[in-house]
Amino acid sequence: MEEFPQSQEHFIQIFADDSAVIGGRSAASLMGKLSLDGITDILVDISALSIGIAFPIIKHFMEVLAQEARQVPNLHVLSCDSPAIDRTIRSRPSDRVAPILGFHGGWGLDEKSRAAILWMPQLSPGKSAVLGRIFQFLRNDQPDTVVCPILPFPSSRPRLSDELLEEYADELQGAWSVDVRDLVYADEKSPLDLYRTILRIDDARRRVFTSVGGSQIILSPLGSKALSLGALMAALERNFTILHVEAMGYTMENGQGEPPPGSEELVHIWLHGESYGKDGATEGPEK
Q: How far apart are CA 170 and CA 207, in angstroms?
């Protein structure tokens, strides 16, 4: 590319021969081979990446910078966020549900065996099959899992939340048994809104369940990249589990037309670096 004459391209295998998801591990391993000497800023553009690839890359750099107590490089996460385009993309999911590399949280640990499980899926058009698969995976292991869905509001499409409630009516009223008071609304274009909301919920649950096994929050961010970044920040800070189904391919719906002008926005999160003090430690993300 002319803008980056020293750029390199690398192939990342997403699935192994036995269909195991290895993309996140491959991506993180590739990043581990890079030298950070003389680098002042790291920019991770997740616009065209699945969260199963992007999140392990980000987690890798966060761990490296924390271990070395570096103030620089600065770590930035960028995304061209266009919910209008995101809603036209349909994924062909694999059949495996698993925590994203680096985001296992306390999943499967004995110390969390008695924890009260709260699953917070981000509702998005056309994702009912994927979310149903994740829910069944959770229910098989934790029958008493409570579901607290995340809906985009405000949204670039004013009635989107209502449309999602209609689309997921069977799940909400049936298998998930969601009380209307358990619905979470988060600004579709503000990662910090969802980030802060998740942390408030975690703070409240810790106080309630501390004497009876504790609380464990499971996240499944789907849909707009801005909201998925809010879930990422919360998971980085509190070591939450992120359950995911990697896509085997993508298609775009026809007949949707062009997205309205100005619907694409650049989302920038400064996760680590000079803005956080001498040691670069993250005490709260900046947008």
A: 32
